[in-house]
Amino acid sequence: MKNDFDSFDGGLQSFETDGIEESSPNNSSFSSFGLDSESTPGDSVDTNALEANTLEDYGTQIVRALNTDGIAPTPYNYRIYFEKLLENKNQEFKDNATQMISSDLTPTERQALLEDKVLKAKNYMVNTLQQVGATYNNLQILQNILKKHESEVSAVNNTIALQNIITVFEKELNKLGETTKAQLQNIKDSYDRSIQAIESIGKNIICDDKYGFYNRNFLDIRIASELESIYRDNYSSSLILIQITKNLALRINSDKNTMLVNRAISKILQKVVNKSDVLSHCGSGIFGVLLSHSNKDSAKRFANRLIEKVAMANIFLGEEEVHLSVCTGIVEINANSKNKDIFKNALEALKKASNSNVSFVVAGEGKEKK
User: Fold this and answer.
1) Distance CA 10, CA 249 (A)
2) Mind listing the pLDDT tens digit for each residue in 228-238?
């Protein structure tokens, strides 16, 4: 585990550890929105009087909920309320609304889909360039073989005609050698430029090619954007980092099995995380979730629900059945937060949760009494 954390920023601040909260029946279908455990967005609105039978009615209910809760009715906030208020609707209404969300991709989501194709094209390109590199080596071997045979033929004591053939062959070989040398240099230059271009693209990619959702680069962009909105509108959001527990990691004996376990975790995350929140892979098997408009109490409830979902799943590694388990680190993002500290503090909380063998740790909170 030490190597996983050492790959991130150093100089992390120290926080006390915390443990998993007991889930109550009232929170079985909690919202990850930043409100008290007994309330969800729009609870202050009389939902019975505004029962939405159509998406148009539902839109009116969302706007009233935003106004009642004092939240600016921006497209971003509207979408968050659109998804989170669905939790109290019937399944048919949820299905219709979800279908609408899926067809209404934002430019960022479209970019992510495009970049997923770019990543695949990158793999093909790298493979092609590797083949060119192999061809380069093979041509060099061919040159050496020709030189070897030339030496052998020149050592044979034979007729003048053979000597003439050797002379002609030597001239042709020299000419071929000059041409090949120039071509091989062009291939090498093209290879170097292609690698540089690919690396440049990679620095701006927001899609993670291992798990099919966002990467750390995009998470950092969204954290910065979220923090600007928080400074302006004075609300709270949360960042949660997730990783398999130490006990589970000790049972995994290969990189292949580690990937299988993390893929299973990623699929559970994709089912639990709302589309309006940001799910990302931060590297070294650490996943991040940015919960917009969600304070630390709401983030704890989200962590509890995720931990329970993961605990119900298992995976076969060879013939052995392994039960999945994760630990989480939570940091609340508010008007006092600094961008440079947010990820670092969440990572430190995750590290403490892992080392203390508890389900979650909240950055800045005192140690829970046992």
Assistant:
1) 23
2) 999 988 999 99
Q: How far apart are the C-alpha atoms of 277 and 289, rounded to whole Å? A: 7
pTM over 0.85: no
Cα torsion 153, 155, 161, 163 to 10°: value is 90
CA distances 331 to 182, 246, 277, 364, Å, are 58, 21, 15, 8
Could you tell me the two tokens for 114?
């495009």
Per-residue model confidence as pLDDT tens digits over 340-358: 999 999 999 999 999 998 9
The residue count of the chain comes to: 370
- The rounded distance, in Å, linking the Cα atoms of 347 and 5 is 8
Angle at 259 between CA 258 and CA 262, to 5 degrees: 85
Q: In Å, how far are 258, 260, 299, 316, 326 from 253, measured between CA atoms?
A: 8, 12, 32, 13, 18
The answer to whether residue 38 scores a pLDDT higher than 60 is no
